[in-house]
Design brief:
The structure is a homotetramer of 139-residue chains. The first copy, chain A, has 139 residues and is α+β, with helices and mostly antiparallel strands. Chain A contains four helices and six strands, in the order ααββααββββ. The two termini of chain A are 28 Å apart. Chains in contact: A-B, A-C, A-D, B-C, B-D, C-D. The interface between A and D is medium-sized, with 12 and 12 residues. β3 of chain A pairs antiparallel with β3 of chain B, so a sheet runs across the interface.
Chain lengths: 139, 139, 139, 139
């Protein structure tokens, strides 16, 4: 299978997008139906006054990005998120995140992809899946 | 029904929590099974290099907070998120968000709450629901 | 608002559909963005050898139907389910179910509807939401 | 890893449970964190008067069972479903279903498992994941 986009192309999209830059995303690998990225911990990721764990919203954001951009190698583009499900498995504190995305179903109009997030000790922190609207842009 | 927490108490939690402060959350109302908050738009909320719409991860974060803190009036505390579902309804660009959360089921061990997000023209932007672990903290 | 279908029309679809007939569905009311139905308990609804509670798959089926057919009053038709989320709130044993469905967002290509199920004592048993593919059928 | 239950034990639970018997479930394999089952098509699985495709509620029921019983090899028991997400990928008509379940996260209080359903031509029909309440039964 060929890969319809390059690591550099995805990294360039990130660098031009304020929120993706803020998440500190680095593309580690891109396959025909998968992607692997790192998200870089930052001070604003503190979900409570005392514990300081990474908030669910950040984990959801990284899962959304990673599941969506798993489409890059197949379609050469990401697609609008229809909906997202996120499961939270364990607390993570001041750790970068490694995120692995994979296509479950590449459909004509709707595609489904999943993502899993690991902390810097390779423990599963969160996982999820989303539906993406992959119908061709109307002319 | 009595309300187990005050607007001031929730606002104080926000002010001491880096991520919630970063989201610019203001509590507008708190009821026995509901909450209403405003999230304040900021430059880092740009989901694409060209359009600049608010990213799905931000909407997910506000839904997670709002659904979870709908428990405040009933329990006097929020609870760990087990999982979250978010549906994206329309794009929003450079708008504050009004979020309304409500308890669907207050359970002994697991509770379910929903949230709806509106833009500054009162259009529904996103909605969702989450499961929260509301078993009493073990002693 | 006008209602694009009648109770009789929906009941006729049920009567001609093996699985919907098997669920014992009776349409109680139909509005422009809502529907109310009853599902009739039957012996095959036994989810365990001992307790005999109604299985999650039956509750999911009734939620899927009710959320989808909440579109009837607006569109005059149901639509293919893209995905479904179901939350289980309490066990129900040998009870009929009352299901209330409502449109959350009527979209051009994707719509989102919710449903809540109650037992014969009006206790909330399960609830959920689904995404439905409401783009016009291609010609 | 040892497997905490046998194929025969799970098949015996199915045979004593009305709804699981009605789904025609046969256990094909059981591993320490996985299960594979077949569900047998029957006339009542007709989701529309004309096309006769297998309804979403049946697919949801098989996903719920398969994800839940993926816990069998690890725990020696299934667990109550907290919530379920199902994605529908393609229509299936009058086909048995092969279902493969797998544990994503075995947790102390909540576990998450996924399942994928294939038709008799090995095409992916539906997939999903659920949260299950795996805290030890209280004494």
């Amino acid at each position: 299978m060929t890969v319809a986009a390059s690591v550099e192309h995805v990294q360039d999209i990130i660098s031009r997008t304020p929120y993706l830059s803020w998440l500190g995303l680095k593309v580690l690998a891109l396959g025909p139906d998968s992607i692997e990225v790192r998200a870089t911990w930052r001070e604003e990721w503190g979900a409570s006054p005392t514990v300081g764990q990474t908030p669910g919203g950040i984990l959801a954001a990284v899962i959304d990005f990673t599941a969506d951009f798993a489409l890059m190698g197949a379609l050469g583009r990401a697609a609008p998120t229809i909906d997202l499900r996120v499961d939270y498995h364990r607390m993570t504190i001041k750790s970068d995140l490694i995120a692995k995305g994979k296509i479950i179903k590449l459909g004509k109009q709707v595609s489904v992809c999943e993502a899993r997030l690991y902390d810097d000790k390779e423990r599963l922190v969160a996982s999820g899946r989303g539906s993406f609207f992959t119908a061709p842009p109307s002319s």
